[in-house]
Amino acid sequence: MSRLLPFLFVGVVLAIWEAVARSGAWSPLLFPSLAKIGNELMLFFSKAEMLTEALVSLERALGGFALAAVAGILLGIVMGRSRFVAALLDPLFSGTYAVPKLALFPIFIFVFGIGSLSKVALVFLECLYPIVVMSYAGARGVPEKLLWSAQNMGASRAAILRRVVIPATAPFIFAGFRVAVPVAMIVVVITEMVASADGLGYQVIYAMSSLRTDRMLAVVVVIAALGYLLDKTVVLARDRLIYWEKLDTYYV
Amino acid sequence: MAVAKASLLIAVLLVWQLAALRGLPEYVLSPVQIAAFFAQALGTRELYENIGASLGRSLPGFVIGSALGAALGLAAGTARWFDRLLSPAVFLTYPVPKIVMLPIFMIWFGIGDLSKVLIIALACFYPVFINAYYGVRQTRPILVWSALGMGASRWQVFRRVVVPSAAPMIFASLRVSLALSFIVMFAAEMINARSGLGHLIRIAENSLRFDLMYVSLVAIAILGYAGDRLVRFAHTRLVAWQQPA
């Protein structure tokens, strides 16, 4: 019984959904049946152009994220190891951390055009913050004892960076990644909903405008699955690379 | 000291202003121009009405979502059966971008404010739930045992030991959820609204009113910053035994 409990909630929700859809009390425009959504899902995966849409969104999300990862780790580690750089950059990052960078999107459209570039740029900017903040915290907190021992044993600065600082910072970097990956998906979907002619976010809006709730929900399921898979990939990569430290989480 | 802290920001603004003197594209205004337009907008009703409309959506959504997240997170962290029932569904849907639910909410709850408040509440729910949950689970068992040993009731243990030890983590997540509430509010207003800062920036964009675009941008930046300061202030006052990082 207790094993089934986790699935119970999801099962009950789906059952209620199907019951509502079949009762006919609401229009299928509001609650399309699971069969219809499933059918649209099948159609989604059988059409090459729909898979292209998913690929477009994925490329934007991962492109912006990858750029943010490279820049963020660099900035974070340099800030963590140099007081001067930290004093220079930390006020800038902490001061603008709570500001919704999304508001820059209309300006980005003028600067980078309405295509992929403005979206990738915004994903980069939004992902940069969590990665910088976490890598900075990690690099700043490298135990002095480890650094001293490495120095004492004659390690060069490059060796200390590669063998001590980066491994000690890695768990923090991955914590930043886990925040940044869902952010990347959110920003891509939002920007595609607001101004785009391709990508999954656009497909959601397009399906809604054509009053195809079933198709819209199918695309929502695809976006949800994508978000989930990306998160799982980060966790998997983390556990492979940081084998010496177990992630202390319960479900995720 | 304050000047030294802001040195990079001042340098950026200075270079930006100097570049503007040499000529920038018309969609990039200089800092002085932006400040002037913003000061001008402060004298109009339009700005306040849109700020009011935006806050009227984001704050109820933030309060509902965070309160529900804290309550259910505390419950799931405390009661085993509730944890088994609810947590898998929450953790499963956590990495999903919640904004995709907006069109569905618009169909279910109309294109008015209700669907926007609910989508903001949904987005704010997750971080608070997860932090409240882990906050409870990180409670030191020795504190619970001592309280029980001294004859505290289960409710007293919850009220006096579990909640206070989870409070710092809950406050940390409130910062995240407040920032999220502004992002989702802005997104929802850009997608579909008749008022609010997101709407303002959209009409500014469509009518090439670059001044209005920057006014809206500055307003949302100030709101985000002020809200974050407020949560941090509440954190230091209410959770006095642990300072925010």
Main sheet: strands, sense, barrel of chain B: none
Q: Which CATH class of chain A is shown? A: Mainly Alpha
Number of strands of chain B: 0
Q: Please estimate the helix content of chain B.
A: over 70%
CATH topology of chain A: MetI-like fold
Q: How many angstroms separate the termini of chain A?
A: 22 Å
Silhouette of chain B = globular
Count of discrete alpha- or pi-helical segments spanning 4 or more residues of chain B: 11
- What string gives the helices and strands of chain B in order? HHHHHHHHHHH
What is the CATH architecture annotation of chain B? Orthogonal Bundle
Order of helices and strands of chain A, N to C? HHHHHHHHHH
Cα distance spanning the termini of chain B? 20 Å
How large is the radius of gyration of chain A? Answer: 22 Å
The largest contact between protein chains, plus residue counts on each side, is: A-B, 58 and 59 residues
- The tally of domains of chain A stands at 1
Please name the CATH architecture of chain A: Orthogonal Bundle
Structural class by secondary-structure content of chain B: mainly alpha
Structure annotation, total helices of chain A: 10
Explain this structure:
The complex is a heterodimer of chains A (252) and B (245). Chain A has a single domain, classed as MetI-like (MetI-like fold, Orthogonal Bundle). In chain A, 79% of the residues lie in helices and 0% in strands. Chain A has ten helices and no strands. Chain A has helices at residues 5-23, 34-46, 48-81, 83-96, 105-112, 116-140, 144-152, 157-194, 200-209, 213-241. In chain A, helix 7 (144-152) crosses helix 8 (157-194), helix 8 (157-194) packs antiparallel against helix 10 and helix 9 packs antiparallel against helix 10. The radius of gyration of chain A is 22 Å and the shape is elongated. Chain B has 245 residues and is mostly helical. Chain B has a single domain, classed as MetI-like (MetI-like fold, Orthogonal Bundle), CATH 1.10.3720. Chain B is 81% helix and 0% strand. Chain B is built from eleven helices and no strands. Chain B has helices at residues 2-5, 7-22, 31-42, 45-78, 80-93, 102-109, 113-137, 141-149, 154-191, 197-206, 210-238. In chain B, helix 4 packs antiparallel against helix 9 (154-191), helix 7 (113-137) runs antiparallel to helix 9 and helix 9 (154-191) runs parallel beside helix 10 (197-206). Chains A and B meet through helix 1, helix 4, helix 5, helix 8 and helix 9 of A and helix 2, helix 5, helix 6, helix 9 and helix 10 of B.
